[in-house]
Amino acid sequence: MKKGTICEGTIETLHFPNKGIMHVEGDTVEVKYALPGQTVRAVIRRNRHGHAEARLMEVTGLSPAQSADMCPHTGVCGGCLYQGFPYETQLAWKESYVRGLLEPVLGEGFTMEETLPSPLTKEYRNKMEFSFGNAEKDGPLTLGMHRRENFYDIITTDHCRIVDGDFRMILQAVLDYATEKDLTFYHKKDHTGILRYLLIRKTVKTGEILVSLVTTTSYRPEKDFSERLSGLSLSGTLAGILHTVDDSTADALINQGTEILYGKDYIIEELLGLRFRISPFSFFQTNSAGAERLYSVVREWVGDTTGKTIYDLYSGTGTIAQILAPVAEKVVGVEIVAEAVEAARENARENGLSNCSFLCGDVLEVLDSLPAPPDILVLDPPRDGIHPKALIKILAYGAERIIYVSCKPTSLARDLPFFTEAGYRVEKVRCIDMFPFTQHIETVCLLSKLSEAKHHISVQVDME
Questions:
Q1: Taking the domains of the chain in order of start, what are their residue ranges?
Q2: Does the structure show a pLDDT above 70 at 456?
């Protein structure tokens, strides 16, 4: 089939977490966002030796396994690809994907424990960052998520099922307010306009809510903005309303200054008996109930910590470090985001953890200034994994045990061979689902030191 050919068929298998495979006229056709059992129409984008890649045009029929009870934004919003499929099926797809990535790297003999499901499959997110825009050129103001595969169009996701009713109510109230005030959104092409993002965070255990309206410096919300939000009948407690300015040209939220309009600029969450202060832009797992399961696995796998020093690299607000501190001799966290480090220090003080300290800086640079090498390392890097130069320094420590927490399996699969080459054995792997109805999965890997590497380790990593 030539480029531009429109084809129809039934998706047979899942190749990647978001790509389905069907066979048409003897060719294997890979269709992004198409899932097993669905019948689809797609247009061929390229075809090389009978293996074609196609763009999904329309799902003409649901999978027999797929329920019609789906989020109304399904197929339009860029998130929640697995809407309508049984949760057990979603978990099986994710586990199969991770196993398929790791087997070529580790061989078939490694231990992969049963995937832990999320305690909540709906309304589980504790943070959302909504964008302002419009759904079509010159259309009315919208507030929500990007249209699938589209850089500019924003869909108002006022019925999103992975957040609770408070998120939806605040989103609608802010959109109504902005529409009434005739406020314009920030245009990425010509860099004009006011409104950029709406950030909402809500804790599960305490029910506190933090809202930040992100605009350019040309605008400051009037008093009635806070009054509008504080007057909502929310199930949680509105702890703070903030105004953040961002004049950057990046298509990402850059905090260039935050002002408190109402209340305070943080909320408190509780995990495994500890309390954590969460500021607007610090990293904290977006699924609080799932985070307890994740951190319980880390705490269990860390093993005997008597008299041990633990380094928690990429520590965020210090959740892992503080969960391990009660059973360790000493824990040191390293994080590049200053706001998160300050929150981690405050959290440690509030939790009465005197053996827990945090350093602010890039892991690559801070490792040079750390004292004695750790006995145990916990790594929880960003999606792109560990920087190659930092990886060399981490391996040079020769820690007896390493726990690698990964939110992107391809990064984990890329990094693991360097650990095995350095004399580490992968003891076990476990997936913990933090993101129901999406293709994403969290993976925890336990490595133990066997012996010194017998040859020079050359780390050359392609960062995606």
A1: 6-61, 91-119+287-308+375-449, 127-271
A2: no
pTM metric for this prediction: 0.91
The answer to whether domain 91-119+287-308+375-449 and domain 127-271 are alike in fold is no
Q: Which CATH class is domain 127-271?
A: mainly beta
Active site residue 407: yes
Q: How confident is the model at residue 188 (pLDDT cuts 50, 70, 90)?
A: confident
Task: Tell me yes or no: is domain 6-61 CATH 2.40.50.140.
Answer: yes
CA torsion through residues 53, 58, 61, 63, sign? positive
Confidence at residue 464, expressed as pLDDT on a 0 to 100 scale: 45
The closest of 162, 263, 256 to 211, measured between CA atoms, is 263
pLDDT, position 287: 97
* Helical H segments across 107-232, by residue range: 165-180, 223-230
Question: Is the domain defined by 91-119+287-308+375-449 classed in CATH 3.40.50.150?
Answer: yes
Query: Quick check: 29 and 48 in contact, CB under 8 A?
Result: no
Catalytic residue among 77, 407, 431, 445: 407
Q: Which long-range contacts (CB under 8 A, 24 or more apart) does 277-280 make?
A: 277/317, 277/343, 277/346, 277/347, 277/350, 278/201, 278/203, 278/210, 278/317, 278/343, 279/317, 279/339, 279/340, 279/342, 279/343, 280/199, 280/201, 280/210, 280/212, 280/242, 280/244, 280/255
149 pLDDT higher than 90: no
Total count of residues recorded for the chain: 464
Contact 232, 249 (CB under 8 A): no
